[in-house]
């Protein structure tokens, strides 16, 4: 049995755990980062096959927090931020098997067939509509109330599929889109709020939070490599089975066994941070009461199938765009597609195309149980029908995620309260990860940095 002492044990080496370990190490703390998989990165994982550099999990992030901007500055000698190709800006929405560009200005908004004439007029009254008073209002109710049903169907619903693979009738705005919720609460209107916020003075770092979409040169996996490189090798324990935490008078003891040889390791630390949710949490923290833990581990997740599709020579409709999202009302199996080969450099052969297709989500949980052949038929048929590429792809890879994205629904309030009371009952224990504070990469880095300051 190995016996180790450190300041902070971090369980889970996805983006949250790695960022936390990186900054704690920088501050001179001794950490132990414990990971069940045989490599770090969590759902972020870049593959490279036959000239296609593709993402198995998340494909893009948004420069949406100061902490993420700072992380890229801190890691600049080890990985390079890559913003999307400006020529591939257009975002598409499927309507009747045809992609329509999402309006980007007033003129295109007037002309678009996506929204009804009534709602186009109605939007002019948005700044004057009175603000809502239900803190648990769902996104769909809020959007219908302020903007109209066609905006829900052809803008917000597909956008929610793209981010949460979720259901706008179930997600509670205050938790799922807090910025939108507070625009209405603080300024009385989305439009008024957005204009006023734009005029507020900003620090140099805040000015860099441009909300542009990014990857990393060579794929997001290079961000993971850069973080890993800057964490001492002997602090990272991959292939850790049966991790468990015990509470001791002056801290915690974390144990796990090595998957390769069964050897046990015991780590004493003053602090422990977990970075994942679901039922695994109850096994790791057996001292937490069932009642409290149940409110945390009953989080519902979207099941997502992520498919990478590559063509060495693309002969379909031009895909010089960001990607396309599919509204629920269109009743399709595919949630959306990103044209990764158009967005980032050197991801596919020069005349080819690389598409990242998302299938399933909360509204089609059955899709994850389809066989590989069934999924391939669904995806290739959707590409044939909407993008007019009739050839078989040269490259095709399926990755399934049973617990892809936690849903910030009506159970969120009870979950967050339970996390607070567990942390209060066991000082030094922190329950982090995407079950709170947002699911996007910018949110993950922000949470980790805020935790570093607390720790
Ligand atoms: C398919 C998919 C697409 C996405 N697309 C985007 C996107 O385009 N843009 C965006 O911003 N976000 C996207 N997200 C969300 C974002 O990627 C995640 O919220 C974020 O990467 C999660 O990081 P994390 O470290 O919190 O969790 P994870 O990456 O899930 O890491 C948690 C780690 O904990 C480990 N672990 C779990 N249980 C144990 C245990 N018992 N013992 C030890 N280790 C354990 C896991 O193996 C894992 O490595 C996507 C997510 C998925 C799944």
UniProtKB/TrEMBL annotation:
It is found in: Cytoplasm. One of its GO terms (cellular component) is cytoplasm. The keyword Transmembrane helix does not apply. Pathway: Porphyrin-containing compound metabolism; protoheme biosynthesis. Pfam families: Amino_oxidase (PF01593). It comes from the Bacteria. It catalyses: coproporphyrinogen III + 3 O2 = coproporphyrin III + 3 H2O2. Its cofactor is FAD. Keywords: Cytoplasm, FAD, Flavoprotein, Heme biosynthesis, Oxidoreductase. GO terms for biological process: heme biosynthetic process. It is an enzyme of class 1 (oxidoreductase). Residues 15-434 form the Amine oxidase domain. One of its GO terms (molecular function) is oxygen-dependent protoporphyrinogen oxidase activity. Its EC number is 1.3.3.15. Belongs to the protoporphyrinogen/coproporphyrinogen oxidase family. Coproporphyrinogen III oxidase subfamily. NCBIfam families: proto_IX_ox (TIGR00562). Involved in coproporphyrin-dependent heme b biosynthesis. Catalyzes the oxidation of coproporphyrinogen III to coproporphyrin III. PANTHER family: PROTOPORPHYRINOGEN OXIDASE. This is Coproporphyrinogen III oxidase. It comes from Plebeiibacterium marinum. The lineage of its organism: Bacteria, Pseudomonadati, Bacteroidota, Bacteroidia, Marinilabiliales.
């Amino acid at each position: 049995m190995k016996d180790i002492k450190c300041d902070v044990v971090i369980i889970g080496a996805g983006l949250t755990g790695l960022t936390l370990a990186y900054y704690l190490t920088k501050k001179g703390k001794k950490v132990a980062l414990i990971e069940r998989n045989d490599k770090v990165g969590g759902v972020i994982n870049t593959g490279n096959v036959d000239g296609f550099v593709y993402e198995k999990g998340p494909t893009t992030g948004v420069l949406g927090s100061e902490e993420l901007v700072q992380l890229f500055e801190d890691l600049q000698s080890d990985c390079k931020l890559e913003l999307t190709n400006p020529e591939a800006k257009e975002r598409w929405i499927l309507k009747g098997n045809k992609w329509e560009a999402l309006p980007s200005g007033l003129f295109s908004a007037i002309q678009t067939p996506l929204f009804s004439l009534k709602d186009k007029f109605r939007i002019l009254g948005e700044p004057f509509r009175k603000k809502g008073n239900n803190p648990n209002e769902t996104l769909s109710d809020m959007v219908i109330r302020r903007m109209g049903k066609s905006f829900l169907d052809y803008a917000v619903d597909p956008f929610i599929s793209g981010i949460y693979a979720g259901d706008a009738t179930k997600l509670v705005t205050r938790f799922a889109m807090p910025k939108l919720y507070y625009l209405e609460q603080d300024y009385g209107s989305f439009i008024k709020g957005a204009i006023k916020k734009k005029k507020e003075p900003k620090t140099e770092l805040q000015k860099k939070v441009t909300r542009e979409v990014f990857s990393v040169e060579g794929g997001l996996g290079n961000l993971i490599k850069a973080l890993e490189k800057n964490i001492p090798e002997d602090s990272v324990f991959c292939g850790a089975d049966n991790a468990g935490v015990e509470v001791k008078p002056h801290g915690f003891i974390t144990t796990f066994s090595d998957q390769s040889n069964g050897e046990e390791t015991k780590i004493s630390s003053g602090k422990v941070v977990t970075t994942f949710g679901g039922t695994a949490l109850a096994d790791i923290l057996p001292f937490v009461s069932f009642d409290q833990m149940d409110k945390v581990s009953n989080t519902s997740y979207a099941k997502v199938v992520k498919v990478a599709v590559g063509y060495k020579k693309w002969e379909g409709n031009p895909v010089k765009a960001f990607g396309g999202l599919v509204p629920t009302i269109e009743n399709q199996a595919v949630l959306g597609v990103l044209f990764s080969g158009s967005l980032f450099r050197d991801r596919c052969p020069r005349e080819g195309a690389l598409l990242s297709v998302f299938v399933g989500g909360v509204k089609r949980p059955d899709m994850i149980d389809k066989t590989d052949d069934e999924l391939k038929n669904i995806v290739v048929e959707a590409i044939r029908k909407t993008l007019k590429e009739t050839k078989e792809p040269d490259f095709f890879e399926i990755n399934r995620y049973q617990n892809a994205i936690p849903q910030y629904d009506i159970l969120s309030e009870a979950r967050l309260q339970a996390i607070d009371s567990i942390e209060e009952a066991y000082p030094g224990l922190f329950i982090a990860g995407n079950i709170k504070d947002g699911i996007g990469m910018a949110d993950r880095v922000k949470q980790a940095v805020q935790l570093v300051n607390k720790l």
